[in-house]
Design a protein that fits this description.
Elements (H helix, E strand, L loop, with lengths): L21 H10 L4 H4 L1 H9 L3 H25 L6 H8 L2 H30 L9 H17 L1 H32 L23 H16 L15 H10 L1 H19 L11 H9 L4 H33 L17 H11 L1 H8 L4 H34 L13 H16 L7 H28 L19
Helix pairs in contact: 1-8, 1-10, 3-9, 4-9, 4-10, 4-11, 4-16, 4-17, 5-6, 5-16, 6-7, 6-13, 6-14, 6-15, 6-16, 6-18, 7-8, 7-13, 7-14, 7-15, 8-11, 8-13, 9-16, 9-17, 12-13, 13-14, 16-17, 16-18
Length: 481
Amino acid sequence: MQRNESSSPIAPSAHLERRLLSRHVYMMSLGGAIGVGLFLGSGGAISIAGPALLIAYALVGTVVYCVMRALGEMSVHSPVSGSFSEYARMYVGGFAGFASGWMYWLWSIACPMAELTAAGVFMHYWFPSLPQWIPALIGLVGLYAVHWTSVRLFGEFEYWFAIIKVVAIVGLILLGAIVLITGWTALSHGATVSNLWNHGGFFPKGAKGVFLALQLAVFAFIGIEQIGMTAGEAADPEKTMPRAVNNVIWRILVFYIGALFILMTVQPWTQYSDGASPFVATLSKAGIAGAAGILNFVVLTSALSAGNASLFSGSRLLFSLSHAGSAPRALRHVSHRNVPVAAVTVMAACSGVGVLINYVAPGQAFTYVTSVATIGGLSSWAVIALAHMGLRRSLRRTGQPLPAFRLPGAPWTSLFVLAATAAAAISMGFTSGTRVGLYSGGVAFVLIVIAYAVKQRRSRREDVPTAEPTVVRSQESVVDN
């Protein structure tokens, strides 16, 4: 039965504290999706689509905005731990909640792998002979220590990580604008807006290039929905969630469209290649002493920031799945600081597979893990759209008013999200490296179906009903002014 479970009681041991301040949630929303998808993956995306990549990013950005408005509406209506997996359970059905939770968990373990892999790549700037797996391992251990300590410490680290990369992106955009206007730096001889159409046209790879770039644009944005995971631990979700979600459109315009526009005007798009950060490459040619090294440090912290947020969302998802009866009971354990340490430990251990991949196949590691992350993220966007449609049906059936904060144009905007995610998934089948994501997603889904069938059979045999969604209650409410 579909209903709002905001009054559902839980045991004291299940509590997570609302220790994320409004500034934490705000900066997480501002910097949550600015990771290696932009700083590293955009180089390959430019080489695939050329200047027309701006269209691919604008299209995916529109999808993201719809997803976030839908998630924001559900978060304000029912702030729960586990976010959309619980909404899927409440408004679509038991299997939807079970499957979406575990498919998103596939993303949750693949994303830290990708970010830690990128950290290893970025370290090559200073230490070319350093094996990628070493900085990946060091980064994983460091992030695990942060999460073990407290939710508040996680929020502080993410807050400062986000500030660093946001300031860097804004600075790069301003620097590019100065180069275009004044001709300053060694890039001046080639910096011109006409670079967008002078090297094979605006569509040098045709419409196919835009289509193939969709998956890379999706990976750049995936993770933005993690802000929904903070609803259960935000001090004032009714206030902080709308504010965080509304910032999405500005982030899309400035940090993605604006940054890519600058990159492809200060230099021809043909100067960028896969496997190298276009931002670092551009500053290396600009002739500004030390600038490339400083930016490389920024993109390194960006990778750690995105990995930090992924560990957070993945551990909270495991915690929620455990309370819903979809994961082992042991994952419900929390520390004396009310941190779900068992779930955090499992997340860190599974993410450690990425260290092994970097040891065995460092050259292919980034492509493999990002494709897995992409298919997991696409499934989460589709589920958010389905759950939102279910919420609207539930409200109409019960005669309840729509929330003050809502997704405009529903249900058509939700249907648009579903169509766009399907198109992006199809685009992954056209290249050999990204097919790994499709294969892994298919295998994972089959295993999920089997696991759900076993779970249901066991539940019927034991005659124990499945637990209702767990609502995180506040033990200590802290509001940041």
